[in-house]
Amino acid sequence: MARLALILAGALAVRVLYTALVAHDIPVIGDALTYHLLGENIAEGRGFERAPHPQLEPLSGWEPGQPTAEHPPLFPLLVGGLTALGADGYLAQKLLLCLVGTSTVGFVGLAGRE
Asked: Whose C-alpha in 3, 18, 47, 94 is 20 to 30 A from the C-alpha of 66?
């Protein structure tokens, strides 16, 4: 168990350092932006509807305000919960998601033990 704790501490440290030192300069585009916008919609009570998206608006057939099931629901719900708790900026969400990734490492480690 001590080795798993060390692995988790290392995984979290690497994720947080990368996010704080490198990823804060990487623009949020594509699915990352879509999840962020869906999270905002969920936090504001609009649910799963398309938000104005600067990369998709030029496409024909893409219209903000329409219901959407284009992405699996659990991750947007998680981002929506973080947004509702006040983590509405990109960096805050990225840092909190470091914890989600680290917990995944922990669950995989525990499953591997079994």
From this structure: 94
